[in-house]
Amino acid sequence: MSEMLAAERSRASDWFRQLRDEIVHTFELLEDSHASGPFSELAPGRFTVTETRREAADGGDAGGGLMSVMRGGRVFEKVGVNVSTVYGELGEQAQVAMAARKGIPGMAEDPRFWASGISLVAHMRNPHVPAVHMNTRMFWTPHAWWFGGGSDLNPCIEYEEDTAHFHATQKTHLDPHGAGHYPRLKEWADEYFFIPHRKRARGVGGIFMDDYCTGDWDADFALTQDIGRAFLPAFVPLVEKRRVQGFSDNDKDAQLIHRGLYAEYNLVYDRGTKFGLATGHDPDAVLMSLPPLAKWV
User: Coil, helix or strand for 209?
Assistant: First the structure.
């Protein structure tokens, strides 16, 4: 399997980088085009790009990526778009964090792994504009491979039409892969992005899959690509519509409280956070998803 998937691993990592470049470019265009409404007097935000590295236990190279973060923009208060490709050997704790299912075939005998993906979290200036998360990824071991990821919307002020647009766009991109994909991935997202100790969802849902492997690499990769392709058309129209709205102090307070939910989920439950920290990846890149400001009542 190592030789068989070498080219496929390269295709996947190249795709994640391509998607990252498209998203970063689009978000900077949104900053440039925000010429009226709240915060339009600010200078357009720009991404600061930092190379990240992961060191192996013996000090050798174990991959890395790019951390792209924009802070204090007109539209985005904080947004991070990370892409990485890491590899090496997994310890027991990292093996648990790597897969939702119990155990990874053959890992005890051969703990090598390879993982590549893109991860995005955007926290917005205007409380009428929803926060959003998107992630797609591929994992490989000598005995198994799988894909994962999705995107979900996290508004502090909910608009039914915005939620409907976000979900309809994702359904349109998933339907060519089979009519059952969207409802199954929507249900998966509803279960995954639930905060047990709050007994509520983190947001209004989206789509999500994990440990996804049908045995047909090309078909699974095509589905993963369309999950990524759905993101910008699902999210950008909501930004363009809501960024010019006025808001009150109460609206901003609601945003900060909702961000507290986001922080709780990512620090306590999110598997991507656990995996990144357990495998020794750059902690600033792993914790990029946390909001710049939040509050708790």
Answer: strand
Task: Specify the amino acid at residue 110.
Answer: D
Tokens at 203, concatenated: 């947001």
Tokens of 259: 């961000």
Phi, psi of 76 (to 5 degrees): -105, 120
Beta strand ranges found along 23-143 (DSSP E)? 48-55, 61-71, 76-89, 112-124, 131-141
- Tokens representing 261 are 């939910």
Give tens-digit pLDDT for 120-132.
999 999 999 999 9
- Categorise residue 103: left if φ over 0, alpha if ψ from -120 to 50, beta otherwise: left
Q: Which residues are catalytic?
A: 133
170 closest CA partner among 219, 207, 123, 116:
207
10 Å CB burial of residue 78 (0-12, 13-18, 19+) is buried
Task: For residue 41, give Cα distances in angstroms to 44, 133, 244, 245.
Answer: 9, 27, 12, 15
Rounded CA separation 88/66 (Å): 18
Q: Hey, which residues does 52 pair with through a beta bridge?
A: 65
Give me the pLDDT at residue 1, please: 44
Dihedral sign for Cα atoms in the order 72, 166, 225, 142: positive
For 211: left if phi > 0, alpha if psi spans -120 to 50, otherwise beta; the answer is: left
pLDDT digits (tens, 9 = 90+) for 5-61: 789 999 999 999 999 999 999 999 999 998 888 999 999 999 999 998 877 666 667
The alpha carbon of residue 234 and the mean position of all alpha carbons in its chain are separated, in whole angstroms, by 14
Q: What is the pLDDT of residue 277?
A: 78
